[in-house]
Amino acid sequence: MIQIFKNKNLSWLFLANFTSQIGSVVGMTAFMLYLLRKFSNQPYYATITELMYTLPMIFVFFLVGVVADRLNRKKIAVNCDFISAILSIILLITIMQDWIYLSFGILFLRSGVSKFFQPAQSALLQGILTEDQYAISAGLNQLVSSLFMLFGGAIGTFIFWTLGVEAAIVIDMISFIASGLFILLAKVSKDITNPNGEHKLKDLKFTLVLKDFKEGIYYIINHSLLRSLISGFFLFGVINGGFSVMPSFILKYKLAPSNYEEMLIYIGVAFGSGVLIGSIVGSMLAKKMPLPYMIISGLIVSGLCVIAGGFSNTTYAYIIWQFIIGLALPIINIGLGGWFPKIVEKKMMGRVQGWISPIILFSQSITLGLIAAFYPSILKIEWLHAIVGASLSIVGIYYLFILPKFLRAESIKTVKVEKSVNQ
């Protein structure tokens, strides 16, 4: 893990990812708490906030992958950061003026811009790393995410308590600016930033966008392993949608209504600690255990723990379950992050990523919409946990039947190649 930091470009992209994440976590945590405090009798406001993060993908999903593969990937990532910083300033003004619905609109726009960032960032990372470094990089990214889970929520809550939601949004703005500057410092060759040749925005005619969009789905359909992996991603959106609001809701409306803000910090620390330890364990397992089996075991274990956690009767029991879930989730992410770049061509990464995000975010948006409509009148918090946990386990069981055969085929292919080389 330390060795790959000798690659200066990776270091700059790592710092960009770091600064961008901490601002987003701090700002969104504070905004969620602001809504729960100011509109305590209207929990659907918190759900709408999460919905503003997912819905934009429905409007831009056909563009994000094509843009990442046709335009300069570095410029896309930088512009996404700087535009997000400007929108953070506008968001700050709407909050100060108490224009809550306009705040939702700005969150929607900022989220729409950010959807172009991930495919470009993923493609840049794939280009500057060797195949042997993919799993290490995935472990490193997971480690960073765990640190934000460990400290980001707590920092966001502390800033909200002491300085208010406005200060948290300012941190958002600064983090996006810093992230964009770090990406500018990375010196990436044109074969990575423009693998399909140089194009400008005016070149993206409707026919070209449609052609590239269709190429992306045909590439996935004709790639049996990729198709099998992505087919399980729809339920990941259900999982993400539930996880984004479940801890806040179960604390405020069941386990700790009088001090839920304080308990959210403890849950963040427990979950983040689990993810931090799980990231280290997962990075070691990636060298000794086939990646598909890491994905499968992590999904089934975490799913069962989510179900059990939803029926907790004390805050401390729920915190323990969150710690265990945190241990299991990095194993899934490292497995997927280490395997995915190996099976996707570099020139197609943007278009493949452009299909993954809408699949996940579409189901995430549906989930959040259903939660906003049916919680708590019809859907109880225990059954919300049960649905999310079952989704995790179902994907794990599906992969258990599907992925091992690809692993065996891959092993046979490797043996044949080695024999032909020896001969």
From TrEMBL:
Q: Where in the cell is it found?
A: Cell membrane
Top-level taxonomic group:
Bacteria
Kindly give the membrane topology term recorded for this protein.
Multi-pass membrane protein
Q: Where is the Major facilitator superfamily (MFS) profile domain?
A: 220-423
> Where is this protein primarily located?
membrane
| InterPro entries reported in the protein's UniProt record | MFS (IPR011701), MFS_dom (IPR020846), MFS_trans_sf (IPR036259)
Asked whether the UniProt record includes Membrane among its keywords, one would answer yes
Q: Which Pfam families match?
A: MFS_1
Span-the-membrane segments of this chain are: 12-36, 42-64, 138-161, 229-251, 263-286, 293-312, 318-340, 352-377, 383-403
Q: This chain belongs to which protein, by name?
A: MFS transporter
The species this protein was found in: Gottfriedia luciferensis
Give the classification, highest ranks: Bacteria, Bacillati, Bacillota, Bacilli, Bacillales
